[in-house]
Structures are given as structure tokens and as C-alpha cells.
Amino acid sequence: MSAPDRLFRIHIQAPIERVWRELTKTDEAQGAVFNAWLVSTVLGEGAPLQMRTGSGKNVIVDGHVLVHKPYTHFAHTHRFTQYDDPLCEVHYLLKETADGGVELTLRVVGLPEGTPTAKSMASGGDFILKHLKRLAEGQGLPLGTKIMYALMGSMEFVLPKRCRTEHWPMKEKDHG
After folding, report:
1. For the chain, which domains are there?
2. Which of 10, 67, 131, 172 could bond 32 through an S-S bridge, CB–CB 3.0 to 4.6 Å?
3. Which residue intervals define the domain Activator of Hsp90 ATPase homologue 1/2-like C-terminal in the entry (predicted)?
């Protein structure tokens, strides 16, 4: 059974192109998303997508791109590799505002109720948007977050073996 959609919303005072880049960049760590690296064969609809650790040795999230409409909508399926929970969907909806900023909505669809994924997403949504706002507005990451990321990087060895990249090959979506 899935819980009602979870919605997180924030206003970011930055050009929509900059916010989009923070969400979809593949050439550096995603500071708003726990310093994970977005990996995809090509960032388009149906393409495989993963969020990997900085070393690339572990996959944190596995999924496929559902929607890739630059500057307005980016969505993908989402499965934490350390859990056996069903897939859910993560949608980022961007809308320019009259003041030159962006209203960013993070919508999680099909969140499996009562699961570790649901618990992680409940707190993760606010964290992601708060840090995305800071980065897009040029404020950088808070010191506490930088320290947390450094600790996470040095403690990567405690991740379950099932998260290792070799267990999560990038697969094109089966359209049949």
C-alpha cells in the first residue's frame, strides 16, 4: 500500500536554468542530494539513472528517468538499493515566479507506506530542497553539511554489500 503523495515546496531566488542544473548535473557531486553523483547513460526519458557515492563503488538509488523536460519537470523512479522496498517516483516541478525566482516542488508518488524508504524520504525532501536553494542562490553548503558529507565519504565501507555498483548494472528500460 502506498501513502498519499508527499509534497515539499520551496522558493529559490535564482534563474530557473541554474536550479535545473543543480537537479540534473552529472559532472560533479550533487550537494543538495547528499553529495551523491547522478549517473545516467543519457539523461533522457527511459534512460537508467543512479545516484552513486563519490567513489562510484556504491549505488544509493537506482531508477529510470520518467520525464526530462528542461526547466520545468524532471522525474524518475526511485529505489534505495539498501532496501527491498517497492519503487516510488520522484518528481521535481519548476515554475518561474514573477520576481525572477523559481517555485520548486518535490513530489514523491507511490511512497511505500511504513517502509524505510518512506521514513528516509520524509526527512530527505526538506533537506534536499533546503540545500538546493542554498546552492542555486550561491550560498554554498553549511559547514555542518560539509562535515556530514566528509564523514559519510569516509564511512562508505559500512554500506551493505548489496549496494555495491557491480550488483546494480545500468539497464535500459524494457519498453516491451
Report:
1. 6-165 (3.30.530.20)
2. 131
3. 14-136
